[in-house]
Amino acid sequence: MEEIFQHFRPEEKSFIEQIIGWKQEVEDRYAPKLTDFLDPRQQLITQSIIGKNSDVLVAENGRFYEAERKRMMIYPDYFQPTDEDFRIAICELAYPSKFIQLKHPDVLGALLSLGLERSKFGDIRLDHSSVQFAVAEEILEYVRINLDSIGKAKVQVNELQQNVPLLPAESMWIEQLLTTSSMRLDTVLASVYPISRQKAAMLIQAGKVKVNFAVREQVAFELHESDLLSIRGYGRLVIKSIEGRTKKEKIRIKIRRIERKS
Question: Are 97 and 129 in contact (CB under 8 A)?
Fold first, then answer.
């Protein structure tokens, strides 16, 4: 058991134990187990713990194209999961879009103010006049009844049918292969963006950098694969993979990033 934990961060131990418990439950009951929505790092950990060569398998679904947050299904090998098994509903908000423009933080804040965990919601997609979001079916009715306003805007929650087109991501992800001298948070930021390590350190210490949705103020925080970073004023990026080292012992990493819109 301890050899599993040594590959991950100490603060991820409780989540790893939860996954091990889910796997044991599937083996004991010989029935599938559906998780809440997981972020990219949690998805990677789940894939790593469950593995690919056993009697227990794992699949994922977020409904949106290239969804960031997904529900995962841990299941015995006889079972073939379908889209419906993931129990994800897509909701659209009806609101006076001619007069009010809603933003991602407004929508997320309103959803969380209902007393629900972030893990009950998937991606939130917006364009100039529409808002769609993924939600666990088991809380759909509660959200429909209780979410009636966002800020000063009155809203109505409508579930979309399966054949209705869904919104794409607001921005296109750009994939890059680059090198960095270490996986420290400040060093990676300075490798990705045209800023010095000192500037990166200032952003981190000012609380402007989140890793997997949590503010990280330690410049030496070690990044791992599938970490999702949000840097205020610069954009977002995902550590897709660590590709090894160059001849000069630099670390080669593959990232996906979204630039902040100017």
Answer: yes
- Closest by CA position to 151, among listed 104, 196, 94, 106: 106
Looking up tokens 């390590």 gives 197
The CA-atom distances, in angstroms, between 12 and each of 44, 69, 260 are 12, 18, 29
Q: State how far the Cα of 96 lies from the Cα of 138, in Å rounded to an integer.
A: 28
Q: How far is CA 179 from CA 21, 187, 198, 210, 250, in A?
A: 37, 10, 18, 21, 6
pTM for the model stands at 0.82
CA 261 to chain centre: 20
Render pLDDT for 77-128 as a digit per residue (tens, 0 to 9).
Answer: 999 999 999 999 999 999 999 899 898 899 999 999 999 999 999 999 998 8
Q: In the numeric block, which tokens belong to residue 3?
A: 């050899």
The Cα 123–Cα 70 span in angstroms is 8
Structure token digits, residue 35: 């998780």
Q: Which of 68, 63, 36 is nearest to 138 (CA)?
A: 36
Q: What are residue 141's phi and psi, to 5 degrees?
A: -65, -40
Report the alpha-carbon distance of residue 169 to residue 64 in Å, rounded: 9
- Residue 7: helix, strand or coil by DSSP? coil
DSSP state for residue 194 in the 8-state scheme? S
